[in-house]
Amino acid sequence: MNNSRVMAECNIQLPDINRKTLTQWYNNKQKKREAEVLLQGIRITEPAMASSQPLPPAKEIPCRPPVVNFPTPLTFILPANTTGEAKLRLVTPRAEPLFRKPTNPAPSRIQLRPNTSTQHHQLALLLQCHAAKGII
Fold first, then answer.
1. Using CA atoms in the order 126, 127, 129, 130, what is the torsion angle rounded to 10 degrees?
2. Buried-exposed string 61-82: b where 16+ CB fall within 10 A, e elsewhere
3. What domain of life is recorded for the organism (predicted)?
4. CA 102, CA 133: separation in Å to the nearest integer?
5. Cα separation of 130 and 136, whole Å?
6. Most C-beta atoms within 10 A of its C-beta, which of 7, 46, 78, 94?
7. Does residue 44 come out as left (phi exceeding 0), alpha (psi in the -120 to 50 range) or beta?
8. Secondary structure (H, E, C), the chain
9. What are the pLDDT tens digits along the chain (136 aa)?
10. How many of the other CB atoms lie within 10 Å of CB of 132?
């Protein structure tokens, strides 16, 4: 299969074999074996395709449907037209929220006194990040 010269000269088509293909082949083979074992000693007769008695004649279908005379004509009563008679609802304005979140919060800095200058720098960066995300 890896040799292109050999594959070009032969007419054999080799399918890819993987776990799924092998499982399908094995399951189909097992099903056939089980059916053969279960059907041992049982004669299955083919049903006759022809009957010894002739078929009854076909029913004739009329060209037009039959006319039926009802005792009274069918009348459908439509409901009254009430277009434009509905009461309009008043739209109440929504109450504004008690607390509004600012759209662009200004970066806030809290002055804490850290022990060293590196801690001070890290704390200032952390507070700026939280303020930008709106956490503070």
1. 120
2. eeeeeeeeeeeeeeeeeeeeee
3. Eukaryota
4. 12
5. 6
6. 7
7. beta
8. CCCHHHHHHCCCCCCCCCHHHHHHHHHHHHHHHHHHHHCCCCCCCCCCCCCCCCCCCCCCCCCCCCCCCCCCCCCCCCCCCCCCCCCCCCCCCCCCCCCCCCCCCCCCCCCCCCCCHHHHHHHHHHHHHHHHHCCC
9. 577 787 778 888 777 789 999 999 999 999 999 999 999 988 888 888 888 888 899 999 889 988 887 777 778 899 999 988 888 888 888 877 777 776 666 666 665 555 555 666 677 777 777 777 766 5
10. 13
Amino acid letter, 88: L
Q: What amino acid occupies position 57?
A: P
Question: Encoding tokens for residue 116?
Answer: 């060293």
